[in-house]
Input
Amino acid sequence: MSDAVVKERWNHTSVMWAMIGNCHRDPKKSRTFKPADIHPYLQRGAARGGVPITADNIKILKVFVKGKNK
Output
């Protein structure tokens, strides 16, 4: 129940932050903000087209880090 209250409050807050950000942005230099850009409880990653973090992905990324690769 309390989790739903927190998410509802973030729904309101993210809309307000997006509106304020859009009022103060330069339309020639940046895109419009959406509430989903700010909302911390919305699902991110694979659902939005990103790559989920797994142990195999971390092994691949270690190649690009300086130091000892194990």
